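worker-3 :: picked Peptide-N(4)-(N-acetyl-beta-glucosaminyl)asparagine amidase
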Amino acid sequence: MACLAEYNKVNKVIKLNHQIQEYLNTKTMDRQLDFRQIAARFLDLYKQKVVRTTRNISDSQRFQSLIRSNEFARNIFSLSQNLCSRYENDIWQARVLDCIDLETIYSNVEAMQGSEDDYLDRLVKELLRYFKRDFFKWCDKPECSNCCDSEHQTVVGHQGPNAEERRFDCGVVETYKCQSCGSITRFPRYNDPVKLLETRKGRCGEWCNLFMLFLKAFGIESRYVWNREDHVWCEFYSTHLKRWVHVDSCEQSFDEPHIYSNNWGKHMSYAIAFGRGGCSEVSKRYIVKNQLPRDQISEDDLQFLLSFITKRLRMNLSDSEIYKLSCRDEQERLQLMKGDSTDRQATGSSSVPQGRQSGSASWKSTRGEDGKR
Ligand SMILES: [Zn+2]
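worker-3 :: tokens ->
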């Protein structure tokens, strides 16, 4: 089999060489057309190679042993299983559209300056504004369920969810005691984004979770970015900017990938993006200083793992879809390799305030995200 494949490969090269020779023999005036044909043929061969490589998932053994031996790899794999296809849910997406003020959103997008080309970017900016200003609420401590005071709430501890809370994918319940009236308030941390349409409050986990569903509900290609140091945000693919663009709903932040390193002063090790079409290592886009040691897995194993998961996600896609996604990967890889170019590329405002915007001062300080370190 290997021999036959090799034979076919050599045969193709011989044929191409033959075509090039023919091209060189033609009269000058005919050359342009022939050149186009040859270029198209080369491109076609390249596409075939990309698709073949993606469809060839032969390293299952290495994957299995990595998952067995490395906890970080296990976590990444489990995140990919949970996140990559999570938001491809028509019913959930329809629920979002039922709950929001589409008229306000669309009229605000129309009112923004721009062209047809950057419509999607304007829509995402408006969704960030709407989500933060009109829809979702930040919650350090919940209001007291008895007297509605939120200033005098003290954490008592954590509990498991009750049956009702478990229905909505709640992992943990924080409990608070009100110093004014003595009542106990439960704050269930829901993971079900549809439940969040109703509760409309939370911290970065809830914000990112529901905002991902918002983006998907509008048919916007997006990814969930996970950072090992307890933060999550989103990215969407801008057909106008032709790249993945950072968006953080907690901060109403559009294309400001350096805010965590520069403005929050956050120390980070890994940032990984999870999407329908693959998993990508995007640390270089976000971690521009205060890099924590990347000692959880060898760089080679991490690259292998992400590529393995990505191949599996793309298994059932069409050839042209696989090729499109591979081209994007390649482009992103080059952009990230250039490193400092992200800053120049980013279109976000240059006067971002110091420190994190969401959350109370003491909460931000505890997390080292107030920009004061
Ligand atoms: Zn109270």
